[in-house]
Amino acid sequence: MPALSPTMTEGNIATWKVKEGEAFSAGDVLLEIETDKASMDVEAQDDGIMVKIMAGDGSKAVQVGTRIGVIAEAGDDINSLEIPADEQAKEQPKEQSSAQAPKESTAPSESNPVEKKSAKPTGNDTYEHKYPLLPSVGHLIKEKGISEADLKKIKGTGPHGRLLKGDILAYLGSINPETPAANEVNFNNLFHLDLSNIKVATKPAPPSKPVEEAKAEAPKAPVVENLEVSIPITLSKVVEVQNRIHETLGVFLPISTFVGRAAEVANDDLPPTKRTPTANELFDQVLGLDKIKAAKGSRGVYLPQISAVPPTSLLTPLSP
């Protein structure tokens, strides 16, 4: 049972989202836990298989740290796995814990040199952690009896400062304290997309041509920035539809409404104009996404202009 808040001591299991023998992926919701304050989903941190559910749907007042299920790594044969016994650590009186602490610190095990190093901070720095904590972190905090005050002294090295199991073990001196710091550097490197090794391809130089052949080539015509195309059109159909709408709905639509709508439809089919690509379009070209995305229209670059107006009778609004 994970601790969803520093003050949580027990919780209720609303429902399991996975069944025994069912595989799941990182990020999938495993179960829904209810407390007296809120209901929250517990997500899987890695890929795995649900081996056995110890506390089923509707279980009430399950203590934090109590085994509620057993999971295996992805690809394991769950039929040959042996479920270990539940060796939940029982809380000992504070007097006994404080009496054993000096003995353990004065006689460390010589076979494990890593335990000689301690990651307990010597300053007064405090850290605010994001809740809910990871299930493995909450279980370890409950097992080791770490108080909320001591928990604020541990620096989280996970993404966005999230507290990891390695941070707790380094604080207790069970692992090398430099290991979480190295993992933090790796996490920070994964947050940024490094494009420094990408080089822009240069066009190959054209083959050299003889001087006589180069002179014989005709000069290229300059690129026309603005191009106007004039075609004759008739508005007889537009006037017919305009009268029909007015007779049936009693609404008068001006000619400009029909011309504007026709321009919108035409711009969707016309090719895009030559322009400087945006930063997003350049990034799509680097990733090769420009080849699979749909071609964009002209985005309203082509504008209609009416140089000859219809007769005056067509411009006069119809009487209501």
TrEMBL record:
PROSITE patterns: BIOTINYL_LIPOYL, LIPOYL, PSBD. InterPro entries: 2-oxoA_DH_lipoyl-BS, Biotin_lipoyl, E2/Pdx1, E3-bd_dom_sf, PSBD, Single_hybrid_motif. GO terms for biological process: pyruvate decarboxylation to acetyl-CoA. Residues 1-72 form the Lipoyl-binding domain. One of its GO terms (molecular function) is dihydrolipoyllysine-residue acetyltransferase activity. It comes from Fusarium mexicanum. Residues 132-172 form the Peripheral subunit-binding (PSBD) domain. Residues 87-131 are annotated as: Disordered. Keywords: Lipoyl, Pyruvate, Transferase, Transit peptide. Belongs to the 2-oxoacid dehydrogenase family. This is Pyruvate dehydrogenase E2 component (Dihydrolipoamide acetyltransferase). One of its GO terms (cellular component) is pyruvate dehydrogenase complex. Pfam families: Biotin_lipoyl (PF00364), E3_binding (PF02817). It comes from the Eukaryota.
